[in-house]
Design goal:
3 domains; OB fold (Dihydrolipoamide Acetyltransferase, E2P); pyruvate-formate lyase- activating enzyme; about 20% strand; about 450 residues; transferase; six-stranded parallel beta sheet
Amino acid sequence: MATKFNITSLGCAKNRVDTEVMMGLLRSAGYDLAHREEDAEVLIVNTCGFILPAKEESINRILELAALKQSGACRALLVAGCLSQGYSSELADELSEVDIFLGPGEVPQIADLVAKALAGNKFVEVGKPDYLYDHNTPRMLTTPFHYGYLKVADGCDNFCSYCAIPSLRGNFRSRSEESILAEAQNLVQRGVQEILLIAQDTTRYGFDRYGEDRLPQLLHKFREVEDLQWLRLMYCYPDHITPQLIEAMAKDPKICKYIDLPLQHGDDYILQAMNRRGSKQEIKKLVQSLRENIPGIAIRSTFIVGFPGEEESHFQNLLEFMEEMRFDRVGVFTYSQEERTPAGQRLDQVPEEVKEERFHRAMALQQEISLSVQKEWIGKTVKVLIEEEVEQGLYRGRSEREAPEVDGFIEFSGKDLMPGQWATVKIKAAGHYDLMGEALDESGQ
């Protein structure tokens, strides 16, 4: 009987792809997936080490699984991912229950490392984080069958002052166009209808490999991927969004009228302190260009409040910026002091209670904006990809304006529908995050 494994995946969608690759490699090596961790002989945690709450979640999960090693079927416990990359020696000293620590660069060795752990070996295997999978790499999808993530690059060269990702993930490195398109075709053949392009900096795609901006050209080539319904762009650094990219998005009906545009702040002093390229005025021009050239585009952004040195006037500039821009969707985060970053070394840290207070004020403002934007869709008809049947006759799905996992849903009444199918839905009501409606039949009734 084959040895069974179970993997816990924490953190971002990029980490999820690494998890899916490890699962594929283990299955190819003859291991079986245990859907319950209690039944697994091998337990793996693919950790996140981005900010303090993510580190704490990772450590708590490791401790939970370590208990299973004492009382359950588990014979080997491995810890992978960004937390291992940054803190393996400290973790190895504190977590003796873990057999092997490995970083993102050791993903292709997972089957060999599992075998060594089962043989009783204990060690740290963390090297340079320079691995990048390709279309020939085995991969088990953990998403619903109708959508999947496609990582076009890994690593980051932006060096934002608050972020440790370049040290955890390595330098930015792009896959070839041929490999990306081949994987896209493979995903579609497996039933995927929506592909989400991801990277630490998706819009930088191609600079390292081809010496020029190649995302517009790559998007154009996605037209060759038959039966793909939606292509969605996530993690788009504003500095690399060119007129050519906007034109490519506007012309291709496969590309969702949606962009994930992390901006992080709306005050020039704070943006400069964050080592973010581009001014508030340049960002405004970019947003205007996106909206003028792609009518109806949904723009999602993220902002950090409580960055070191952020005074009330800087925060007010952020609120005014949010109010003026009226983004469709916004995630707000309190700044997390990371000791291995330039911002983490600053002496002008903002008190936690001030961060929390600003977080709630920013979220309250965005809720008003989001509800106002959502209400504009009442009475309109949208194409919806069905995610699930919540109860008999009630379904949940997404239009091109909602990305999976981070945005809301459209809940609608209908009959005889299945996940992965499409529905035409007339919007009847709106909430802060979700829309409500009813499915129309082929006659539009």
